[in-house]
Amino acid sequence: MKRSGIPWATLALLACLAGNAAADDGRWKVVKPGVMVDTFTELQWTQRDNLGGDVNWNQAKAHCAGLALDGGGWGLPTMTELSQVYSGAQGEISCGNYKCRAPKGFYLTGLLFWSNEREGSSEAWSFYLSHGVRDSYAVSSAPLFSRALCVRRS
What we know:
four-stranded antiparallel sheet; alpha+beta; globular; 19% helix; four-stranded mixed sheet
């Protein structure tokens, strides 16, 4: 279904993003469509995760590296950067059918987010925004609700 020439699903997503656009305590700001900045760290974040369902570490890494949003230059965050998303939130937002501790303005569909940090040659670290816990998984596995949230450093 289309309204005003824009697909209905696109309108729904834009409405959701606009509804969450209020930044937490002024720290998080939507600076461009699809891009948020953490004013404390000056890191830029994609406003939404990969939205395509569960991904393994290799897929998450490729998703961020290939993202053309606002000129590209995106990558997976470090564990510290992911923990700053969690600790920098003033409350919870929806993450699909669940809740995550993340700033308003993010549109997330999963609970578990891959980092760029490896644990040996076959595992990588990830962070649960649902409860602030880290875990490692095989780089070839796609745990339930695993997503890519991309960051860009200035």
